[in-house]
Automatic annotation (TrEMBL):
The gene is yybR_4. Signal peptide: none annotated. Pfam families: HxlR (PF01638). This is Uncharacterized HTH-type transcriptional regulator yybR. Keywords: DNA-binding, Transcription, Transcription regulation. It comes from the Bacteria. Residues 11-109 form the HTH hxlR-type domain. InterPro entries: HTH_HxlR, WH-like_DNA-bd_sf, WH_DNA-bd_sf. SUPFAM superfamilies: Winged helix' DNA-binding domain (SSF46785). The keyword Transcription regulation applies. One of its GO terms (molecular function) is DNA binding.
Length: 116
């Protein structure tokens, strides 16, 4: 069993999902394998609402997976996000999940690949 901030996790998988679980965290993290400006990330994650993206980024930052850097003090703010060293340890996991999705899409007739 594992515990973070008095919250218990029964196994290592549940601990991992604390960091990357949910609908969007893994998607955001894979886009941040390369450092991105907020606007670039927003364009790449079109289906995520702006509010959800902001909330998820804040959680990922609080969990130590990403770094938020503000480059100007007056509006419009220039902000980038990148993986921390801790966040980079997830790259093999994220790439494996993405590859599994590609393989599943290729093998499963129910999955349709749509053009954007």
């Amino acid at each position: 069993m594992y515990c973070i901030d008095d919250k218990k996790y029964p196994c290592s998988t549940s601990l991992t999902m604390k960091y990357i679980g949910g609908k969007w965290k893994a998607v955001i993290l894979i886009h941040l394998i390369e450092k991105k400006r907020y606007s670039e990330l927003r364009k790449e994650c079109k289906l995520i609402t702006e509010r959800t993206l902001s909330l998820q980024l804040k959680e990922l930052e609080e969990d130590g997976l990403i770094i938020r850097t503000v480059h100007t003090s007056k509006p419009p703010l220039k902000v980038d996000y990148e993986l921390t060293e801790f966040g980079r340890t997830l790259i093999p996991v994220l790439k494996a999940v993405a590859q599994w999705g590609n393989d599943t899409a290729a093998a499963n007739q129910r999955v349709k690949v749509l053009q954007e």
